[in-house]
Amino acid sequence: METLLFLFPQFNYMSPKEEAYFKMLGPEDLQAPKMKDDSSRQKDKERKSRLSLFLTKSGSHENVSPHKKANTTPSNISAEAALQWSDSFEELLKHSDGVETFSQFLRTEFSEENIEFWLACEEYKTIDSETKLLSKAKYIYTVFIESEAPKEVNIDYNTKMAIQKSISQPTRSCFEAAQMKVHSLMKKDSYPRFLHSDIYLRLTRRKGPGATMFRRRSRSCVFNERGEATTEPSAW
Questions:
Q1: What is the sign of the dihedral through the CA atoms of 173, 179, 180 and 183?
Q2: Are 132 and 14 in contact (CB under 8 A)?
Q3: Staple 117 to which of 107, 144, 158, 198, CB 3.0 to 4.6 Å?
Q4: Which of 177, 151, 150 is nearest to 164 (CA)?
Q5: How far is CA 203 from each of CA 44, 64, 66, 194, rounded to the nearest angstrom?
Q6: CA torsion angle for 3, 19, 137, 133 (degrees, to 10)?
Q7: Which residue, 149, 171, 154, is CA-closest to 21?
Q8: What pLDDT does residue 189 have?
């Protein structure tokens, strides 16, 4: 631990989850990415296995409560509030309950790493301390970006390599391209399915015994000839 404190004095600025994560790493893990031999790659696999187990036990990203089960939804959300989330994906992301419910849906599809990465990037952009920025960048890279990361997100090779090159001296915008790609993936792929999921329909009281239909102007998701998700006004 003393070695880690010497290399990363920004432990004083970390969340408990991030500090526990960095305690699992050795000094060689804190260096910039480089070519590794077979022995190093084997150690990487063992480290990532331990990290994956740690993340599973500790729950999802700290911005999404790990105490709520995937098949439950907050009981204090009104149908009218939930209906607002169908206006657009951006509208859903403005509401903490919307993010939490959408996260629960993604867990049922085993793709919760997308919203967790997006939330981590949003938090990352608010960091003022350069030391904390470095530790947070390393955390995001190790958990979400590098090959075989425990919660690796689906981004293209060029975007991944650009992040790898900048991780030793990260800027507030170094994850921006990757975040935009993951946002687009959720918006075009996961969000339309979420609006038709049992989790969402139960909240809007449009499914189940005694369901009540609320009528309001909203936008429904449709796909154009290129298979891209778009929205158009409709009345429920």
A1: negative
A2: yes
A3: 144
A4: 177
A5: 43, 18, 20, 12
A6: -90
A7: 149
A8: 97
Task: Return all residues near 139 (Cβ < 8 A) that are at least 6 apart.
Answer: 18, 21, 22, 120
60-69, 133-142, 149-158: segment of lowest average pLDDT: 60-69
Largest CA distance in the chain: 63
Q: Which of 51, 38, 50 is nearest to 138 (CA)?
A: 51
Count of beta carbons in the 10 Å neighbourhood of residue 226: 6
Q: Which residue has the tokens 């867990």?
A: 107
Here the tokens at position 72 are 């439950």
Q: ∠34-39-43 over CA atoms, to 5°?
A: 80
- For residue 229, which phi and psi values (nearest 5 degrees)? -75, 130
Contact 138, 169 (CB under 8 A): no
Cα angle 3, 138, 98 (rounded to 5 degrees) comes to 130
| Strands in the chain per DSSP E | 217-223, 229-235
Question: pTM (2 decimals)?
Answer: 0.65
Residues 6 or more apart in contact with residue 109 via CB below 8 angstroms: 190, 193
The position carrying tokens 């952009």 is 125
